[in-house]
């Protein structure tokens, strides 16, 4: 298993008490598979993704990536782990307006202390993988919403992560473009053997998932009819 969340409990302060966001959640995501996480607003989906990304430390439980537990890691160690192991596709692409599609990816190399120029072949490879090799020189305002989201996905894969975490990638897209983005994420998951968690509100796209997990009031369950129910 590439990504394991084991007995995860997460609470937040709520006045004089604490609000439980995640309640004893265990989730295993094998490499090369896509797990879709669904549930109503406020159910804990975003909290689960943040814990999996090591952006939030749970009250209890363990996140294990590639066999390495993250418990006890320093902030710097977690930052390095994310940079080299975890790709995050945010709900909004948040592309840099002044950079071309290729440069959006190359800047990831600079963050990692590598030469952006030497990273260009990798950037072009990924743009080709998401069907945008011919758009490499275009800036965000010259791209459609679906194309910007594809750049977002390619950028998340720039450092060859083993874990891919995707947050509501179709929320700003129409059904057709949203379906194309989900198909792309599914294909790249299988081709690049990432352990992928996809948080989504759109149940129309769930047929692409290898597993469906439903979050309600911080608890995880597999709904009837899911591929592994």
From TrEMBL:
Residues 3-229 form the ABC transporter domain. Transmembrane segments: none annotated. One of its GO terms (molecular function) is ATP binding. Keywords: ATP-binding, Nucleotide-binding, Transport. The keyword Cytoplasm does not apply. SMART domains: AAA. It comes from the Bacteria. It holds the Pfam family ABC_tran. This is ABC transporter ATP-binding protein.
